[in-house]
Amino acid sequence: MRLLIALLLTLQVLLAQAVEPKQKVEEYPVHEKAAKAAFGAEFMVHVVSSSGKNYFVPEYFTVELAVYPDKGITIPFALRDFTLRINGKKQELRPETPGIAALSLGFAGLPEQQRGASTPQEAVTAAGFNDTDVGQPVAGYLFFPFRGDGKKANTVELIYRGPAGEVTLHLR
Q1: Interatomic CA distance for residues 142 and 111, integer angstroms
Q2: CA 123 to chain centre
Q3: Angle, vertex CA 90, rays to CA 39 and CA 84, nearest 5
């Protein structure tokens, strides 16, 4: 019974949209328009903010991203459409799924769940983007594998090449 309750609470966390998009794309520090959608982003270095709490994800660069599709259309959203370029290098980083990023935080077993509290792993998973169809504004996190000091990343560019067009967001 205890395991069932823990699983139901985990499912509830995963189904909830943990990151709400801002009212307007212009509210993000960086925003650009592609052919069929606008993108807003903030480079969070190694942090995920979810449900009023911050979580440190040391093995990943994190980018809060919001997608605002043009009215009346639905866009297939896929992680493979995004890359991150650091310091102008030719090699671009590909994002990993939120579940993989959450696993990097370790596994502490199934904790006692009280008042809807969740583990850092659940919060990171719920805050992340997965492949989906986007028909209204949505927000979440992208996780790019990067171990190291974020201060050494002098320039950071989020690149989107997908069904909504192409755009580069200069995050730093």
Answers
A1: 26
A2: 11
A3: 30
Query: Which amino acid does the sequence have at 98?
Result: P
How far apart CA 29 and CA 148 sit, in angstroms, is: 24
3-class state of residue 70 by DSSP:
coil
Count up the domains in the chain and report the number: 1
Residue-wise pLDDT tens digits, 7-57: 433 444 444 457 899 999 999 999 999 999 999 999 999 999 987 899 999
Give the residue numbers spanning the domain of 14: 2-170
**What percentage of the chain's residues is helix, strand, coil (to nearest 5)?**
20, 40, 40
pLDDT at 110 over 60: no
User: Is it the case that residue 127 has pLDDT exceeding 70?
Assistant: yes
Percent of all residues in the chain with a pLDDT value above 90, rounded to a whole number: 73
For residue 3, give both structure tokens: 């395991």
Say which CATH number the domain at 52 has. 2.60.40
- Residues 6+ away with beta carbon under 8 Å from 1: none
